[in-house]
Amino acid sequence: MVPETPLWLISRGRLNDAETALCWLRGWVKPGDVSGELQSLILYHKQMTTGLSIKKSSSTESQEELVGINDMSLKQKFGHFLRPQMMKPLFLIISYFFFFYASGFQTTRPFLVTVLETYGISKDGAENSIVVIAAVGVLGYAACMIAVKKIGKRVITLVSLGGCAVCTFALAAISAQGNLTSWFYGIMLAYSFFSSVGVAPIPWMLQSELYPFQGKCLAAGVAAAASYLIGFLCTKWYLDVQNLMNLEGVYILFGCFSSLGFVFLYKFLPETEGRSFDEIAEHFNPKEHKPKIRNAYL
Questions:
Q1: For the chain, what are the domain ranges?
Q2: pLDDT tens for residues 220-247?
Q3: What is the pLDDT of residues 24-80, one digit of tens each?
Q4: Which residues contact 185 (CB under 8 A, 6 or more apart)?
Q5: Which residue of 172, 208, 216, 243 has the smallest Cβ count within 10 Å?
Q6: pTM, two decimal places
Q7: C-alpha pair distances (Å), 200 with each of 5, 102, 142, 208, 249
Q8: Pairing of strands 52-57, 62-67
Q9: Per-residue DSSP letters for 175-230?
Q10: Distance CA 107, CA 115 (A)
């Protein structure tokens, strides 16, 4: 039902299949509608797979030679993977995953009934409430799908983390009061929405956009593994942190991490909507001058 990605098909020389996949991805359009983008992807693939620069050290000076990816030794491939153009986006996405869990909602999700009971809600009421909270989360995912093309991933990310920060600080204030207020349900619903609209789905979208073609699959796997490991540790340690800091302290901590994530991603996260693969690569490697390929827009 779902075709392979056009770049992968191009890398295997299956240009007709790449054209069919691109037509499917762009909404079952005609081949003529994607011909320009297909040619840009072909040029991008050639640029990424031929003439790769590999440093060689000699007794007198550092030299560079141009080799193809298939001609590299295992050591050279490993060094090529560790190049800044790969490590910078990989670190950025792993950091994004960290702030997703550190913003709190996903970390508290397995214990949400217990959290609601802490606020004085009955067990039956808590179980009914989490259904509504989850439904609002689904609306957040839907809103992201609708808005991402017009607003961009960067703006949605900042709105999402900013909203999470406001909601967690508000929940901390309610915890400090020691009694349930009429604002509580609205804040929890807003917290679910803000978490789902940005920090939950967008890092997975960025996985397919920020990495260079060579090494993309390995980098995506490393980032995904890091995400699951961070999620496991946050979930495992949550109850210990709550017992140590109480619920008020936990939400203050979540609010601080959300604020820190807002500042970090504001400074380092580029906008990828409407930018070509080449332009995104140049963002992480500005000193390398290469021919611009402007039609392979994301």
A1: 6-49, 84-273
A2: 999 999 999 999 999 999 999 999 999 9
A3: 988 878 999 888 888 888 887 777 665 454 444 443 333 334 445 555 666 766 777
A4: 129
A5: 243
A6: 0.80
A7: 23, 12, 12, 15, 23
A8: antiparallel
A9: HHHTS--THHHHHHHHHHHHIIIIITTHHHHHHTTSS-STTHHHHHHHHHHHHHHH
A10: 12
